[in-house]
Design a protein that fits this description.
The structure is a single chain. The chain is mostly helical. The protein has one domain. 90% of the residues lie in helices and 0% in strands. It has three helices and no strands. Helix 1 runs antiparallel to helix 2. The longest helix is centred in the middle third of the chain and has 68 residues. It is rod-shaped. The relative contact order is 0.06. The N terminus is likely disordered.
Length: 108
Amino acid sequence: MIMSITFLVADRKAGDSSQGGADQTDGKLKDSKDSDSPGHLEEKVSQLEAMLKNLQDDLQKEKEDKAVLQAEVQSLRQNNQRLQEESQSTVARLIKVTELLCNVNKPC
């Protein structure tokens, strides 16, 4: 989009400078007038609008993708927390079982 805007500005500047030069031929003046003609400008505006629509669509999709990824991250964090709690609980139970077995068999 920036490149198109740059070309549009460059086309404008080229048209402005060619109209100011006294040694320009009628053909060059006609070319610059053609590039600034309403039809040509409308076409450029139409292209820019289409590019803007595409960028807006891309932005909306990126926002949707971001929301999905954020939900996935939240789910993974919850699962991680649950697994850490289960791990700590399992370790505590293993310690109790080990203590019980050692107390029964005294040689531990």
